[in-house]
Amino acid sequence: MKYFYLFFLIIGAFPVLYAQHFHAGNEALTYPDIEGYITLKTDFHQHTVFSDGEVWPSIRVSEALRENLDAISLTEHIEYQPHKKDIPHPDRNRAYEIALKEAEDHDLLIVSGSEITRKVPIGHSNAIFVTDSNKLLTNPSEAVFAEAKKQGAFIFWNHPYYKRQDGIPVWSDFQKERIQKGELHGIEVINSNNYSEESLALALEHNLTIMGTSDIHGLIDWDYTEEGNHRPITLVFAKEKTLESLKEALFEKRTVAVFNSLLVGRDEFLKPLLKESVLINEATYIDKGSILKIELENVSSSDLIWENETPYTFHNMPSVFEIKAGKSTTLLIKTIERLKKFDLKLKALRAFSAPKQQPVIEWNISTNINDI
Questions:
Q1: Does residue 126 sit in the same domain as residue 87?
Q2: Given CB 3.0 to 4.6 Å as the disulfide criterion, which of 127, 237, 305, 311 pairs with 349?
């Protein structure tokens, strides 16, 4: 009988242990640095019980540490507070303060932020790097964005297709005015499970930072991990891992949005990220023939899907192939003659630098030839 009670004691204690201090897990995300910058993994759109989320702020810290994120922001709806009868909190900075305390012994940057919640066509926007969210509790809408700008915030438009039956974002006069006044700097092209090609077009047309976020309300495990997915994130290419450098990189638009095998960003950052994500571990000819064996290793957390763009055909697989995250694959390429140098050109089929525009990545490879 005592073992029966011990079993239930352990089971009962597990949720508390998990909620408070369980920071280990199997879902750690990794992406390579690119030349001149370190790659920071971020999620700047999350909710807790301090607005319409379902978890305490410390849970968001635990999830981020388990997934090896570098920075997060808890962007609570400042106007929409459905739990206020049970959790009254006049201080709109409270979720940030709790997360900051939980993360103080860990290498995780906590960015202050709030979600400005208005009806369409204004919609929802996140203001991060704010100094006091309480001062955003004001009307009219123009005054809220002006206050966020005054605090030095980086502001981005959330799920721009919100409340649209056709799923197409509408670029209203309000957004145009925010751009002109320097009060809108980014736009979500990936939110939750949704990728918006039209939002990417808007980002490029209006020179906005490309963002990807989870917009999580429940548990990351429930919405993503148990479905075999990683949360959507924004990769930010910063000069160092500090709040100041992170903010600078966002304003300079050095980002790539990622959701599983989908990567979306400007060519100048997307292409080097893809190139650094694949290591060439071997490039040798088989025996004395003209079949070149190349081993490719994917060192990122995204499954990468490629299409052959060289003038040669493959001996062992079709022209479209996949390299699983953290895995390797071998190409056997029929080069007709033995080459000292080989240019491997592959199109990244699940990567987009513009609507329907997929980058081609090139590796200049030296082979093992020394007899010609």
A1: yes
A2: 305
